[in-house]
Specification:
single chain; 2 domains; alpha/beta; 8-stranded parallel β-sheet; 359 residues; 3-stranded antiparallel β-sheet; TIM Barrel
Length: 359
């Protein structure tokens, strides 16, 4: 596989592990992926609930938890570590500032347009900024805005297709429309990014994610113009994944028909594994009485069908009857738990096989 260069950062394997919250990708998984030459990513979502013992309130615990996870990852690896921060989080700016203070290598920002992200950089900061988009239109807007206001050019771009897990940047009717497939939108995003990069004499790598499952998938999407891939689902079923065994088993036990599109309290559709909790949600039995976390800007407790933070935290802890697992469209293909090293080696071998058969 060709190495991935993001400025002065070089990942010898062009695989970015997707940031998965709540608690699914913390320092354990991120460090293991970074050690194998990929880019490991800590999810900033819900850290205040996971590390509630570090501060008196959730907001302060979010900050303390992020510091803790970054520092823990740094002690475990000298590889590339990023953090995924959802723009929809109430304390998005505060979390980004802390990540920059801690010298994180990369901030990946999605679930909204991170139009003001460059304003948070401090003098001398080496942190790279990578927006997550779902269309060429979105990347054009971000590139234009960042350059006009901050003279900043994205260090890379992640494009997520509609087969991704978790929150999706698509309307319901677009999710199964082939015109919005990753294979269709990657060349569009690459063309837009290349045009902008050429104007400013900069190479901006495009990282493609959403439904990328095998080494053959990696080969095919890189042939379509991507410089690297983002993968989340495959890393859930690894020994080093920070989720509970029950969470991992929900992937292994899932059938294709168990994977469904839900409407998240965040205001976006998402992909998850069906179960008793989501059945109760559909019956209107999980409505929260109050908002204990104030985690999402767009979540209103008066009309929210359930507390997403609590549901995802319960799933992370293995209490699947009180929560659910977000997943990519191919989660049903997960049949075994491997170490990160075994998985990365398997993906490299599959890539080589695909490359040989196409040459």
């Amino acid at each position: 596989m060709k190495e991935l260069k993001i400025g002065n950062l070089v990942a010898t394997t062009p695989i970015v592990q997707g940031g998965m919250g709540v608690g699914i990708s913390l320092s354990g998984l991120a460090a293991a992926v970074a050690e194998e030459g990929g880019i490991g990513v800590i999810s900033a979502a819900g850290l205040g609930v996971i590390h509630h013992d570090l501060a008196d309130n959730t907001q302060d615990a979010n900050i303390a938890g992020l510091r803790y996870e970054i520092q823990k990852a740094r002690k475990a690896t000298s590889g590339i570590i990023g953090v995924n921060i959802m723009v929809a989080l109430t304390d998005f700016s505060e979390l980004a500032k802390v990540a920059i203070e801690e010298g994180i290598d990369i901030i990946f920002a999605g679930a909204g347009l991170p139009l003001s992200l460059p304003s948070l950089l401090t003098e001398g900061s080496k942190t790279k900024l990578v927006p997550i988009v779902s269309s060429a239109r979105a990347v054009k807007l971000i590139c234009t805005k960042w350059y006009q206001q901050y003279k900043y050019i994205p260090d890379a771009v992640v494009v997520e297709g509609p087969k991704a897990g978790g929150h999706l940047g698509y309307k319901h009717e677009q999710i199964f429309d082939e015109e919005y497939s990753l294979e269709k939108i990657v060349p569009q995003v690459v063309a837009e990014v290349n045009r902008f990069g050429a104007e400013h004499n900069r190479e901006i790598p495009v990282i493609a994610g959403g439904g990328v499952f095998s080494g053959e998938d990696i080969y095919n999407i890189m042939k379509a113009g991507a410089s690297a891939v983002q993968m989340g689902t495959r890393f859930v079923v690894t020994e080093e994944c920070d989720a509970s065994n029950e969470f991992k088993q929900s992937y292994i036990n899932a059938r294709k028909e168990d994977i469904s599109i839900i409407q998240s309290p965040v205001g976006m559709p998402g992909r998850a594994i069906s179960g008793t909790f989501l059945d109760k949600v559909s019956q209107g039995l999980c409505k929260p009485k109050k908002c204990p976390f104030n985690c999402i800007k767009t979540c209103n407790v008066t009309d929210s069908p359930y507390c997403i933070m609590l549901a995802l935290y319960n799933a992370y802890k293995g209490r699947m009857e009180h929560g659910y697992a977000f997943c990519g469209s191919n989660a049903w293909q997960c049949k075994e738990i491997l170490s990160v090293r075994e998985l990365m080696n398997k993906l490299r071998e599959e890539y080589k096989t695909a490359e040989k058969s196409n040459n």
